[in-house]
Specification:
The chain has 469 residues and is of the alpha/beta class. It is 34% helix and 23% strand.
Length: 469
């Protein structure tokens, strides 16, 4: 499972079969939380008469939902805006009417003024204000320049959004926590998402029930620091994440639960115990450690040492021996020496990760680390990352290979690339493909793993009996 704010996803809005009067195209960059946010933007706009289209050429409104975690994220946004400007001019010349352009998400929050100065956009909206998109569209009609909304009303956002519309999928994301109070020196999240905010229990459980009614079998709880979630319970008492997971385990129809992304400092004994006590909580956890060097961790303001991280890993594996771990690692943080990097390599060898997301450090404007003098040369970062990738590749390949011959339960999610093939996810989040009837989609069935690669598993469906829950 990927970090809730890690790079790797670019997703376009799903096409609709109708030909509406007002059409919106949403291009999503970055993390799972942005995917969730894009769906909720579509919900908010749907209440205002917009429906989604799969192509910007067909849209009346194009939204770029941006992520600031990627290197050169702003440059990528400006490049995309350049293409949209050409499309808008061509439409005007052909008499096709106007194309409204909006930039949403973390780049909009962090660099809204620069976007307004450099690009001809209509709306700039931060990640905590997208529930106001219908209002901002109306305001733009009577305003000369772009409408900019970059406040942090997280509670207002969730209270104002309409109920999610029907989207047929066996798994779904559900944001329960946003923002960050940790202020790691390399990270922009506290500046783009604001302070930590936890949604109340009643809101989350109600959304989970609606998802289950639509056929969702697996829910992934999202948050920048999801294990710091502390929401108001039904009696007014504050609940913690283990309490919430236990409540969601009781929602009829939900067979699997996951959560991401966790911070080591918030991995409580109760949450460790939840991995032992809740059968629906999948045996896979994303737990970033970022660097194996205590000296670098201190410079990152991570507030944990490697001794702390290893102690957590041991506790988790005692509670759930089959638990698999993934992580995030930054290579070449300012001041990182060869000795610091070797400590990271030893850390990876010690823990053994099923999957990991590793990146060369790149400065994020406005973060403390960006101004540090001891920047590591790019060639050194590249060499270190190549070595780390080789080790992580070997570990992931070995983890998948160890699945061959085992029986795993798979949630089938979609048709495969080939005719008569279905694709799903194992409890460890591995993609699994097999020959099978598309009627399996949305169900969980046992398979025998017949082959493995670094990125996926090949399976044989053992029987056609599927779960009835």
């Amino acid at each position: 499972m990927q970090d809730a704010c890690a790079p790797g996803i670019e997703q376009d809005a799903r096409p609709t079969a109708n030909a509406p009067e007002k059409r919106v195209f949403i291009k999503t960059f970055g993390c799972q939380m942005n995917v969730y946010d894009s769906e909720r933007m579509a919900d908010a706009l749907g209440a205002a008469g917009f429906v989604e289209t799969g192509a910007p050429e067909d849209a009346d409104l194009v939204i770029l939902n941006t992520c600031h975690i990627r290197e050169k994220a702003a440059e990528k946004v400006f490049s995309e805006l350049g293409r949209l400007r050409v499309l808008r001019e061509a439409r005007r010349q052909d008499g096709g009417g106007n194309l409204m352009i909006a930039v949403a998400g973390c780049v909009a929050q962090a660099e809204g003024e620069e976007i307004a100065r450099r690009a001809a956009v209509d709306i700039i909206v931060g990640p905590q204000s997208y529930h106001r998109l219908p209002e901002l569209i109306e305001r733009r009609a009577s305003t000369r320049g772009p409408v900019i909304e970059t406040e942090f009303p997280a509670a207002e956002k969730f209270a104002s959004l309409p109920a999610p519309k029907l989207r047929a999928a066996p798994s779904a994301f559900l944001t329960v926590q946003e923002g960050c109070d940790k202020f790691c020196t390399f990270c922009v999240v506290p500046y783009t998402r604001g302070a930590e905010y936890s949604r109340p229990v009643a809101q989350i459980v109600e959304e989970a029930k609606r998802l289950a009614e639509r056929g969702v079998r697996e829910i992934t709880l999202l948050g920048q620091n999801v294990n710091a979630w502390a929401g108001e319970g039904p009696s007014g008492k504050t609940w913690t994440l283990p309490d919430l997971l236990a409540a969601l385990s009781e929602v009829a129809g939900i067979a699997r639960l996951r959560f991401t992304t966790s911070h080591p400092n918030d991995m409580s004994d109760a949450l460790v115990s939840a991995h032992r006590n809740l059968p629906k909580l999948m045996p896979y956890l994303h737990l970033p450690f970022q660097s194996g060097s205590d000296r670098i961790l201190k410079a990152m303001n991570r507030k944990h040492r490697m001794e702390d991280y290893l102690r957590i890993v041991d506790r988790l594996r005692d509670a759930r021996p089959d638990l698999a771990l993934s992580t995030d690692i930054i290579v070449g943080f300012p001041g990182e020496t060869d000795a610091d990097f070797e400590e990271t390599m030893r850390m990876v060898e010690r823990v053994h990760f099923a999957q990991a997301y590793s990146f060369k450090y790149s400065p994020r404007p406005g973060t403390p680390a960006a101004d540090r003098a001891e920047q590591v040369p790019e060639a050194v970062k590249s060499e270190r990352l190549a070595r780390l990738h080789a080790l992580l590749f070997a570990q992931q390949t070995a983890f998948n290979a160890a699945m061959v011959g085992r029986t795993l339960s798979v949630l089938w999610e979609s048709r495969g690339r080939n005719e008569g093939q279905v694709v799903g996810r194992s409890p460890y989040l591995q993609p699994v493909y097999a020959e099978g009837d598309p009627a399996l989609i949305g169900h969980i069935a046992d398979v025998e793993i017949a082959g493995a690669s670094q990125n996926s598993l090949r399976a044989v469906i053992k029987n056609l009996d599927v779960d009835a829950t």
